[in-house]
Amino acid sequence: MILAVASGKGGTGKTMVSDSLASVWQHPVLAVDLDVEEPNLGLFLRPEPVRDEAACLEVPVLDPARCNLCGACAQLCQFKAISLMGAQLLVFPDMCHGCGGCMRVCPQGAIQKGQRVLGRVETGLTASGIRCLTGRLRIGEAMSPPLIAKVRQHLRAMADEAALDVIIDAPPGVSCQAMMAVQDVNVILLVTEPTPFGLHDLRLAWQAFRSLGKPMTVVINRAGLGDEGVQSFCREMGLQVLMEIPFRREIAEHYARGGVLAEFDEEMRDLFTGLARKIAAMAGAGGHHA
Amino acid sequence: MILSSIRRIAITSEGPTLENAVDPRFGRAGGFVVVDLESMATSYVDNDSSQVLAQGAGIQAAENIANAGVQVLLTGQVGPKAWTALQATGVRVAQGIEPMTVGEAIARFKAGGFAFSDAPVR
Amino acid sequence: MRELVVISGKGGNGKTSVTAAFAYLAEQKVLCDLDVDAPDLHLIAHPALRRSGPFLSGNLAEIDPAACAGCGICHGVCAYGAIQKKGGRFGVEAAACEGCKVCVALCPAKAIAFHDRCCGTWFESETRFGHMIHAQLDPGQENSGKLVTLLKAKARERAALVGLDLILSDGAPGIGCPVISSLSQATLALLATEPTPSGLHDLKRVAELCQGLRTRSAVLINKADLSAEYQAAIHAFCDAREIPVVGHLPYDAAMTTAMVRGQAVTEGPVTPFGTRVRRIWAELQPLLEPAWQARSGEHQS
């Protein structure tokens, strides 16, 4: 079972819901942080590090001895990562999208495979046995999608190897990186807040993700805070609200101390256990194991 | 670079005529007015091929300049990647041109009123 | 031209609410929503649309089934897994297509078209706060920063046209391309944060980004009374980096209450919360002065 915890709006509680679900999950589980720009899941799950490796993108490196300045590479490159300036071939590796086209079209074999560091892929294990996988974008690296793709490769390998269920903490928004995080999952859980911003961005997320045809469901965080717009929207669209987390200062303070909400008290533990069961049922009903 | 060895110059421009305003941008400039300093004949190089790019507009613009056969570029500012690209072409760049028309910029250049840059503005 | 860009690293730290609050207070400015992925500023600004247009960026490959010989070379060379065989024929999955043109170039039958890609829509509007430039990126599209760059250019054009010298920009969360693009030529980046492990963690990353881009920064601590420990940690971090903390806002439903009313938190009835935001706006003014930039020797255009 693969679950993606996503949202349109940032700061609604994706990480909070992800770490709580992971802590009560009955089956061996892999908690994956695909919010590679600002990965926070590990701050709450606190895994012991197991591996930490660089993730790289293949970028062109020119062998000037073989280059005959035919310009076929520059002609093809859509991203201006390799260009012909008069009698000089210039490579801008941080513009490269890693398509490999230049290497394929070079008739002289003058373009070798170099690397650009995208960030890190970290794996770890918590004291309670939750496996963790995190992508961490290098600061200054402009593109998240290539790193997300690498982490997803690790995700599949790890989940298949140990028959793990997977909980993905997705990045906010509905652009390319968010879509990548919710691809090929069994259930999409949208975390929102009952405010005008929350509603607007929930609608964006619902519109964006429903084309994937996966079961979608909602958790409302800070319930009682704003207005009824989100509830009305969910009713209208037939979106089931599986859980509401009340707007209470002590919950925010627990989070501010780095606490996992499912460990706050009995009530929260029961709420999240119930949520986990309902999600597993949704996945079982429509989907298949990882 | 000795002023007398400069034959053709390019000025980033919002349009094709000498009355058009100098475009402060390089990568996404409207185009370049190219001037032959001897004959004072002018022509216009459209920079549309750069503007349509999601990224690398400055690099494409540098390619356009390289193909225009000029020795000098007058503009507002050039970004770091475009700067690297322009260095490869051997074109000298004068940045920081204030609001003025292309015609005024040419006159100012001929009078020696611009200094060549050693680095991109940013 | 001066530009204040409000960013945060972590989402949900009040970027949009604070930008709207400043929009109400700032006399002469152009408002800009650079969070093109999930824009929310319009929910407070209530823009009246004046002009809009398609945002074209990149390309999309499309296989012509009539010309396709089924050799599968395209499938083999696509680095993004965007070409799949479905129902016996090869097709391009638009969401995965990067627009790299490799399949187009290598198709022996020349059966692949390469279309311009419409990724979203930009808007130029009027609001009670003044001119507003905003956009909506279409779902699943790459947020390359090009749309952000376009909006900033439009904001500058509009400001110059009407003789204004201040742009107030609501930025995006994260540290990726759209954030990098939003910081271009910014006079000041205001980093909104919260005193929590994620708030501090994400603040450090976005502050490092600003430092690398040589962008002047200041910090605003939202929900500041949630944790004395983390508030102290944020201050310690800012002191060490010489980043001014321009104010604290308490954990309070005030921003949401105003949002539900469709107003900025500085609009409407005077509240202690709104008064604090006014004070923060006043604190920011010297940091937005061009003279201050010149003194520290940085070039701004």
Q: If you had to describe this structure to a student in words, what would you say it looks like?
A:
The complex is a heterotrimer of chains A (290), B (122) and C (301). Chain A has two domains: 2-38 and 139-286, Rossmann fold (3-Layer(aba) Sandwich); 57-117, Alpha-Beta Plaits (2-Layer Sandwich). Helix content of chain A is 35%, strand content 28%. Chain A has ten helices and eleven strands. A nine-stranded mixed beta sheet of chain A has the order 3-6-7-2-8-1-9-10-11, sandwiched between helices. A two-stranded antiparallel sheet of chain A has the order 4-5. The radius of gyration of chain A is 22 Å and the shape is elongated. The termini of chain A are close together. Mean pLDDT of chain A is 94; it is low at 286-290. Chain B is 29% helix and 19% strand. Chain B has a five-stranded mixed beta sheet, sandwiched between helices. In chain B, a hairpin with a 5-residue loop joins strand 2 (31-36) and strand 3. Chain B is built from four helices and five strands. Chain B is of the alpha/beta class. Chain B has a single domain (3-110), classed as Nucleotidyltransferase, domain 5, CATH 3.30.420. With 301 residues, chain C is an alpha/beta fold. In chain C, 34% of the residues lie in helices and 26% in strands. Chain C has a nine-stranded mixed beta sheet with strand order 3-6-7-2-8-1-9-10-11, with helices on both faces. In chain C, strands 4-5 form a two-stranded antiparallel sheet. In chain C, strand 4 and strand 5 form a beta hairpin. In chain C, helix 1 packs across helix 10 (272-284) and helix 7 (197-212) runs parallel beside helix 8 (228-241). Chains in contact: A-B, A-C, B-C. Chains A and C meet through helix 4, helix 6, helix 7 and helix 9 of A and helix 4, helix 7 and helix 9 of C.
